[in-house]
Amino acid sequence: MSRNRRTRDAAFVLPVVMLLLLMPPYLQVFDQQSFLAGIPLLHVYIFSVWLAGIVVTAWLSRRMVMTSDTNVSASPGPNTTDPAER
């Protein structure tokens, strides 16, 4: 499987994974009376998942742009001839 295909598949699966991580069964695990630096553990979990989603999305989008740029410049398409040559 090519690198571009794996990146597109990861970009497709990421919203599903993020949605699953924010579903009630996972949230209930962190809904306790415990604190991390004075912040409830549930809030830390939600914002950590949210931030991780943003970071992974930015990384995947940058990787997709770099992959598509190299594919476009490496292999010209069939309609890239100069109109003056016709």
Q: What are the key terms here?
A:
mainly alpha, two-stranded antiparallel sheet, 70% helix
Oligomer: single chain
**Which of globular, elongated, flat, extended, rod-shaped describes the shape?**
elongated
- Order of neighbouring strands in the sheet with most strands: 1-2
Query: C-alpha Rg, in Å?
Result: 21 Å
Structural class: mainly alpha
Distance from first to last alpha carbon = 38 Å
Task: Summarize the main sheet.
Answer: 2 strands, antiparallel
E-strand count: 2
Q: What fraction of the residues are assigned to beta strands by DSSP?
A: under 5%
Give the proportion of residues in helices. Answer: 55-70%
Distinct helical segment count: 3
**Count of domains:** 1
For the residues shown, what is the average pLDDT? 85
Helix and strand run: HHEEH
Low-confidence stretches: none
What this model shows, in words?
- The chain has 86 residues and is mostly helical.
- It has one domain (3-69).
- It contains 3 helices and 2 strands; from the N terminus they run H-H-E-E-H.
- A hairpin with a 2-residue loop joins strand 1 (35-36) and strand 2.
- It is elongated.
Write the layout of secondary structure elements.
Layout: H1 3-21, H2 24-30, E1 35-36, E2 39-40, H3 41-74
Helix pairs in contact: 1-3, 2-3
Provide a brief overview of the structure.
With 86 residues, this protein is mainly alpha-helical. The protein has helices at residues 3-21, 24-30, 41-74; strands at residues 35-36, 39-40.
